[in-house]
Amino acid sequence: MCNITQNIIYIRTDLMLAQEHWNMIVAKECEESFFLDKLHPFLTLQSQIVDYGCNQGHLLYEFKANGYRNLIGFDSSSIAIERGKLIYPELDLRVLEKGMHIPCLDASLDAVVLSSALHHISNALERELLMADIWRVLKNKGILYVSDFLICEHSFSQGNYVNGFKEFNDWGLHVAENQFVVRHYSVQAIMDLLKNFEIQWFEQFDFRELPTRRFHCIARKRFH
Fold first, then answer.
1. Which helix (DSSP H) or strand (DSSP E) does residue 171 occupy?
2. pTM above the 0.85 mark?
3. Are 22 and 59 within one domain?
4. Distance of alpha carbon 29 from alpha carbon 22, whole angstroms
5. CB 78 within 8 A of CB 95
6. Which pLDDT belongs to residue 11?
7. Phi, psi angle pair for 162, to nearest 5°
8. How far apart are CA 81 and CA 211, in angstroms?
């Protein structure tokens, strides 16, 4: 399904610089909702699907358990991938070697999953590079499932935003409890990132365990 592409110039990225951090905390499990039933109408069991930032492969296993066959997961944490292979030896899990680049051929994928990855990318240029690369690897009318954190009104989160604004002069960017810089997004910021996609479904949910809010979105590649 995917072949390593050649002759590409890369820059160091927030995601790659965070690799050591995630290697240290990857053992911590975090419950996360995922609405696979919303994706079913857009896919077939033969669809070519990549999970970018797959961690140990939990979401890919959910796809596998529902009959999907052509699955690859990429993550920058080698420890996450190693553990994932032990837990799910039947999955194709690979270490992501180059930041905002999916090592797949142009227009080769039916769907890309981007779950809990964007909030680790604080640099605007790197976010744009990633979204452009997702657009590149998706087939015409291919599907992007993206889920992450939204700016919310809870006092705990608002306190983080205030402190982050003092340090970074950027609302929503803040230092999390694990001392890593993360970003929560406005809905408009997400829509701007998805400017080359047609929104098929978008919904907000309050996170069950933390005073935060998440969005889940299915978007279809808009052919230029």
1. none
2. no
3. no
4. 12
5. yes
6. 32
7. -60, -45
8. 29
Q: How many domains does the chain have?
A: 2
Which tokens belong to 56? 């140990």
Please give the pLDDT value at position 7.
Answer: 31
Mean pLDDT of 201-207: 88
For residues 124 and 49, state if they share a domain. Answer: yes
Residue 222 DSSP symbol: P
pLDDT tens-digit readout, 101-134: 999 999 999 999 999 899 988 888 999 999 999 9
User: What's the whole-number mean pLDDT along residues 37-65?
Assistant: 96
- What gap in Å lies between CA 166 and CA 88, rounded to an integer? 43
The angle subtended at Cα 14 by Cα 207 and Cα 136, nearest 5°, is: 85
The CATH number assigned to the domain holding 51 equals 3.40.50.150
Verify that 105 and 196 share a domain, yes or no: yes
C-alpha torsion angle, residues 5, 86, 179, 19 (rounded to 10): -20
Give the three-class secondary structure for 169: coil
Q: How confident is the model at residue 142 (pLDDT cuts 50, 70, 90)?
A: very high
Same domain for 157 and 72? yes
Distance, in Å, from the CA atom of 17 to the CA atom of 23, rounded to the nearest integer, reads: 11
